[in-house]
């Protein structure tokens, strides 16, 4: 399986077995989403249904919430042993990158290198497919890690960090099925094109699930009213429009890397917007 970040995934892990043909349809979709979005050692035995990749997209925001919850637990554990907020935030971001295999970070770096260094569409696509990280990609990764680290350190409270991470990771992945559905593929054959498009009902379900999950987490934060929460959601959603339009102009549509970059941009904007709304200041060690 391969989609965001241009990385191919074997359907085998090392510990837990998930036997494809005997799994129910919904559970199979969920497991497929977990296999794709994390590095958890899940082994898939049996035939991989042809349309399972596209059906699994529906579960991205649900799995994103669980990923964010893991990050919240990491931050809480570090805080409980008096690790300073800035260091705890950095280690939390690192732990989440380990859990996901830096899947979306890889897409962000490839997009930055391709869009920044390519002279024309074909050159950009060629650069994006190159596994090496260039100057633009390295800069994008540094900015991504720094922005998320500083945002979490500014939020500081372990409870608030946990709910913010859950909302950010759910919301950032909720838009990916819709982008797959609405935007053309930049390549006729590639990681994103091979997955296929979800149907409109599934794309809408993912978007609604992500919106509800993110909105619910925001109610757990000490924010000033519903308009502030809607503003946070709107700011983060704006990142989808920016990346989508940029991708159309630069390479004519989406790739797996573009989807990975979109997740990163939305996640960062969500956390930064939450930080601004809370009025926090970074706690320095």
From TrEMBL:
UniProt cross-references to InterPro entries, sorted A to Z: CobS (IPR003805)
One of the GO biological process terms: cobalamin biosynthetic process
GO MF term list: adenosylcobinamide-GDP ribazoletransferase activity; cobalamin 5'-phosphate synthase activity
Pfam family, any one: CobS
Biochemical pathway: Cofactor biosynthesis; adenosylcobalamin biosynthesis; adenosylcobalamin from cob(II)yrinate a,c-diamide: step 7/7
Top EC group: transferase
Catalyzed chemical reaction(s): alpha-ribazole 5'-phosphate + adenosylcob(III)inamide-GDP = adenosylcob(III)alamin 5'-phosphate + GMP + H(+); alpha-ribazole + adenosylcob(III)inamide-GDP = adenosylcob(III)alamin + GMP + H(+)
EC number: 2.7.8.26
Top-rank taxon: Bacteria
Gene Ontology CC, one term: plasma membrane
Obligatory cofactor(s): Mg(2+)
Keyword list, A-Z: Cell membrane, Cobalamin biosynthesis, Magnesium, Membrane, Transferase, Transmembrane, Transmembrane helix
TM stretches of this protein: 20-38, 59-78, 84-103, 133-155, 203-221, 227-244, 265-284
Keyword Transferase listed: yes
Membrane topology: Multi-pass membrane protein
Subcellular location: Cell membrane
Family under the similarity heading: Belongs to the CobS family.
HAMAP family membership: CobS
Protein name per Swiss-Prot or TrEMBL: Adenosylcobinamide-GDP ribazoletransferase
Organism of origin: Nitrospirillum viridazoti CBAmc
């Amino acid at each position: 399986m391969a989609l965001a970040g241009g990385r191919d995934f074997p359907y085998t892990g090392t510990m837990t077995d998930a036997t494809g043909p005997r799994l129910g349809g919904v559970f199979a979709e969920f497991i497929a989403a977990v296999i794709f979005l994390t590095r958890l050692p899940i082994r898939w035995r049996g035939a991989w249904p042809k349309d399972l990749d596209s059906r699994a997209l529906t579960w991205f925001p649900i799995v994103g919430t669980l990923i964010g919850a893991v990050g919240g637990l990491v931050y809480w554990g570090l805080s409980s042993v008096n690790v300073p907020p800035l260091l705890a935030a950095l280690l939390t971001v690192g732990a989440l990158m380990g859990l996901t295999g830096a899947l979306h970070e890889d897409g962000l770096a490839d997009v930055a290198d391709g869009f920044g260094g390519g002279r024309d569409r074909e050159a950009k696509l060629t650069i994006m497919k190159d596994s090496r990280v260039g100057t633009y990609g390295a800069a994008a990764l540094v900015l991504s890690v720094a922005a998320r680290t500083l945002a979490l350190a500014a939020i500081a409270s372990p409870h608030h960090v946990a709910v913010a991470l859950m909302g950010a990771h759910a919301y950032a992945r909720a838009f990916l099925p819709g982008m797959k559905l609405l935007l053309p593929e930049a390549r006729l054959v590639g990681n994103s094109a091979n997955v296929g498009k979800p149907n409109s009902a599934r794309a809408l379900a993912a978007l609604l699930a992500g919106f509800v999950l993110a909105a619910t987490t925001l109610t757990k934060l000490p924010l000033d009213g519903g308009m502030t929460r809607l503003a946070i959601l709107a700011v983060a959603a704006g990142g989808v429009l920016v990346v989508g339009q940029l991708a159309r102009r630069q390479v004519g549509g989406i790739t797996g890397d573009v989807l990975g970059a979109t997740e990163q941009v939305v996640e960062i904007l969500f956390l930064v917007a939450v930080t601004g709304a809370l009025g926090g200041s970074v706690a320095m060690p």
